[in-house]
Design brief:
By secondary structure, the chain is an alpha/beta fold. The chain contains eleven helices and 30 strands.
Length: 475
């Protein structure tokens, strides 16, 4: 039997609120190195593009705010995606998969839908399962991967396997929402319940027929979103109006629960959806006392804790079963058994309009990053890092002035008609209303201190006149 090549579709749209304060909406967990030196997106892309010829370059579906960081992360590991699809609004996994299927329906390929934020210990086992699922998908089944549970888990949904199709796969009897502890234990004892991994394999034509039957409004909206899409350098931006009107549903409830084409393949591949700090403790390397630590951490008479620090030294004495996470602007302390409840804290921060809910102190931009190191009434101090051969937009501000002091590298600065080059320990001043641009024209990083003064210091006081990254004014 001829088996089509596999096209990975990597979904990178989640916010990862249960991993706050490290994961936030503007820099969510899939873009962070939480388990290895690579981000979870990078790890997903690498295992989904093995060099054996059976896999095609991936589609990436992501939040438009993350586009430059995602492109840079993929480039740094040598993966060139087939396309990066930008969602101006998030609409869950069913619309994302539908758009990918519409793009690939004319191709001789099978789609492998993968969330970007999962950890898989047994990569070889994953590839074996993916190739087996591709064979099953040739018979017009939509295959989902059901993880053999290692313990009762209340944080995952479950799939009840029904009558066998063959030795590898069964019909789906039921999708079950996250159970309580008693039901989760019963599911594990019963033996035919599997964790719902959220990974799927199907032919585009089969999936689109099922979407047309069970979710025609999603299909119509996705067709319009693609028809209204615009190409922006390395990205395809889906039509805003059509996508906004699209129902927001996961693949499970929109299609798989209703279709007779669904099949579930049991896999035992060391899978974890890394949905909480407790999950990171479970898969982390533990010391003799059961602690998992990351960063500058010292423990004394402490057991079964997860302790993570970004910059500061953390000392833990005589504590048990805690999660302690430090970032530049926030500290989380939680009972490890309550790790799922972090999402509630983020909700309270959002309700109070606290910026810490969505933003880190350090903010990534396509040209580099900036870090707010001090702020007060009418002033703000930042460190700016500009990557080699990159430049900021030509812009001006209505409400603030800026002082720039070069501390590392060489800056090419345009103010009005004047162009100058500054090195370390040299500075310049930009008045409000003056057109200006900062550029790193060298092959070495550029670092500056920026001091802002004014009656309003928000990012939406940037009026861009010209921008190589095709961004509009920040609103």
């Amino acid at each position: 039997m001829k088996v089509r090549k596999i096209r990975p579709v990597i979904l990178s749209g989640g916010a990862g609120t249960r991993l706050w304060p490290t994961s936030r909406a503007r820099l969510p967990k899939q873009l962070l190195p939480l388990i290895s030196d690579r981000s979870m997106l990078q790890e997903t892309a690498l295992r989904a593009t093995p060099k054996d010829g059976g896999f095609l370059p991936p589609y990436i579906v992501c939040n438009e705010q993350h586009r430059f960081l995602i492109a840079a992360q993929l480039q740094s590991i040598g993966i060139a995606p087939e396309t990066i699809l930008l969602e101006p609004v998030g609409r869950n996994t069913a619309p994302a998969a539908t758009v990918a299927a519409l793009l690939s329906r004319a191709q001789d390929e099978t789609l492998l839908i993968l969330p970007a934020d999962h950890h898989i210990e047994d990569v070889e086992g994953f590839l074996v399962a993916a190739k087996a699922a591709a064979e099953i998908a040739e018979n017009d089944f939509m295959v989902t991967f059901g993880v053999v549970p290692s313990h009762p888990e209340t944080g995952y949904g479950y799939i009840r396997a029904g009558e066998p199709i063959d030795a590898r796969v069964s019909h789906i009897s039921e999708f079950v929402e996250k159970p309580d502890a008693v039901r989760a234990a019963a599911y594990v004892r019963q033996g035919n319940y599997l964790w719902n991994s959220g990974m799927f394999m199907f032919k585009p034509s089969v999936f689109l027929r099922e979407v047309e039957q069970f979710a025609p409004e999603i299909l119509a909206a996705c067709e319009k979103a693609l028809a209204g899409a615009t190409n922006e350098t390395d990205f395809v931006r889906l039509g805003l109006e059509a996508l906004t009107a699209c129902p927001s549903e996961p693949i499970d409830t929109a299609i798989m629960e209703r279709s007779s084409k669904g099949a579930v393949m049991p896999v035992d591949i060391g899978w974890n959806d890394v949905g909480s700090w407790a999950a990171l403790w479970e898969i982390g390397e533990k010391d003799d006392a059961g602690n998992v630590t990351s960063g500058d951490v010292v423990t004394e008479d402490s057991t079964n804790c997860y302790v993570r620090g970004d910059r500061k030294l953390i000392s833990a004495i005589g504590v048990d079963n805690l999660v302690v996470v430090e970032t530049d602007d926030a500290i989380l302390i939680a009972d490890r058994t309550r790790a799922q409840d972090v999402k509630g804290i983020v909700g309270r921060l959002k309700a109070s309009a606290r910026s810490e809910a969505d933003h880190h102190r350090k903010v990534h931009r396509p040209w580099g990053w900036y870090d707010r190191i001090e702020e007060g009434p009418n002033f703000q101090v930042k460190v700016l890092h500009v990557h080699p051969r990159q430049k900021l937009s030509l812009q001006y501000h209505n409400h603030r002035t800026e002082h720039w002091i070069v501390v590392e590298g060489t800056a090419r600065i345009t103010i009005g008609e004047d162009v100058k080059t500054l090195g370390p320990n040299q500075s310049t001043f930009v008045a409000n209303g003056e057109q200006h641009r900062l550029e790193n024209a060298t092959d070495e990083p550029l670092k500056l201190i920026e001091i802002q003064f004014g009656d309003y210091l928000g990012e939406d006081d940037i009026i861009r006149l010209e921008d190589i990254y095709e961004r509009g004014d920040p609103a």
